[in-house]
Predict the structure.
Amino acid sequence: MITRPPKPGPPTTTRTQVADAGHTRDDRKDAFNRVLGDLKNNIGGLRSSEPFTFDSGSGIGGNYLQVVLGIYDEAWNPPSEIDDDNLIATVRVKVARSGRVISASITKRSGNTLMDRSVQQAIEAVQEIKPFPSNSKDIEKNFKIDFNLKAKRASA
């Protein structure tokens, strides 16, 4: 009788060995999803500081949030004479289904007059955003946006 050695294959690693290394598959997946979520909700110096959802089945998803963030980021021109990069101002924006901006206001000021004035100018400049997709069931949607000076300067 001929006995053959087992076929060489990839080394087997148990879940315990991987966990001992500090990184389970679930850990890597969770980390990837966190980074992906941050990328979807962060454009230039703007970031949505709350989860983004539209009615189920609307198909609008994170892409519309990216449009909103992109328009406000483009409108925002922070003054270069501000020395403190750690300034953040939070804004609440309400958008109608048609894309018309119903309201926009600063809900949390940065504490720097120049910074807050630049954010106010940006939100006043944006009157219209593209309409929601036709399959969206929402009549209007609120967005909470952080204007982050450090992130804006890093993206420039």
